[in-house]
Amino acid sequence: MKNILPFILAVALCSCAGGGETKSAAESAESGNAVIETIMARRSVRRYKPQRVERDVIARIAECGINAPNGQGRESWEVRVVDTPELIAEIDSAYGSYALRSGNAKAPRQALFGAPVAVFIAYDTRYDLSQVDCGLMGENMILAAQSMGLGSCCLGGLCRFINSEEGAPILARLGLPETHKLLYAIVFGYPDESPAAKERHMDKVKFVE
Ligand SMILES: Cc1cc2nc3c(=O)[nH]c(=O)nc-3n(C[C@H](O)[C@H](O)[C@H](O)COP(=O)(O)O)c2cc1C
Question: Are strands 180-189 and 117-124 parallel, antiparallel or unpaired?
Fold first, then answer.
């Protein structure tokens, strides 16, 4: 009896503290947290269902985008939404022939991965932090889309092409002001794949004391 007394005491103490399942501060703040679940579930989607996305859904996603923090409240971005099959086909075809000519075997056959919507984001060349504004705006859109069951993928390579001499006709179609330069695009649509999460490296994050 004497030998098992410390054991009984330890079990009693543990059950007082919730059966030993003490939660960290982060775990307590996170449980049932839809924002964190949305962030952690998001992946870049490169295959979409042909189903179109209603304009009011896209408009709401864009509204979430422009509610992002932005330097000096300038809203320094310019945003162009492309959702007509005609213009999407035009972009696919222009990018496709460029990729073929440049011998890029890895280039996707469809520039927009078959997504029904592409949002093009341009930054204000007169404002040094405009690219930050554009990045924050895009992530707001991506997370809003994810929370509404839509997938997304950022496209930098496509915009490099559109900014090149060969992409000039497409750039002209976007009707950006001279003050702005196309930075990147994000495609949206109903996902037709569920990619696994890529590894992340927490050692890039350091507490400095
Ligand atoms: C600025 C930027 C440009 C990107 N450009 C491309 C691109 O041109 N083509 C592509 O397939 N993915 C592109 N991506 C998606 C990344 O490859 C992807 O986010 C990264 O591999 C991490 O994977 P995850 O989004 O599934 O977590 C881009 C992402 C960012 C943020």
Answer: antiparallel
